[in-house]
Amino acid sequence: MCINTGKPVVKVKPDQRVFRGETVTLTCDIQGGRNIQWRYSWFRDGDTVYPYTTPTSAEFSFTADRVSVSKYRCRGERSGSHTDFSDAVTLTVSVSPKAVLTVRPDERVFRGETVTLRCDIKWGGDTGWTYRWEIEGTNNWDRNSANRCTEQDCCTSGADKQTHRNAS
Fold it and tell me: Could you give the number of structural domains in the chain?
């Protein structure tokens, strides 16, 4: 028997696109059923999810442990009755991107020579990335006479020690 309430809505935190290893929290929001003691049922791609019910808590948290694209739905249950299913929410889990540093020239250089550092994001997809470059633990290129720094490439001359901290 179906209970006459508003259709449940699944909310996702932190986002519908996450990286493998991140914790995901789904919330089943049942409009108009706030004073009812619900038991929440969860479904992934049409199948029940273990634990398939979360008694009294509208939240279901788990670690995104495999790369996948899945659809999640929920519904509320009590006393042999249930709400309609929520609309499906798509969760996309992808591999964590990794920053890869390339140094040119790739051999010993001397003070005053130009060095080019390039940071490529492996498995980064087509997302726009923000690059952060550090010299000896600082975030300030101006302290060591950097000549130019674009988003992905940095060239410098006259700097002693230069490092790039991985974004991964």
Answer: 2
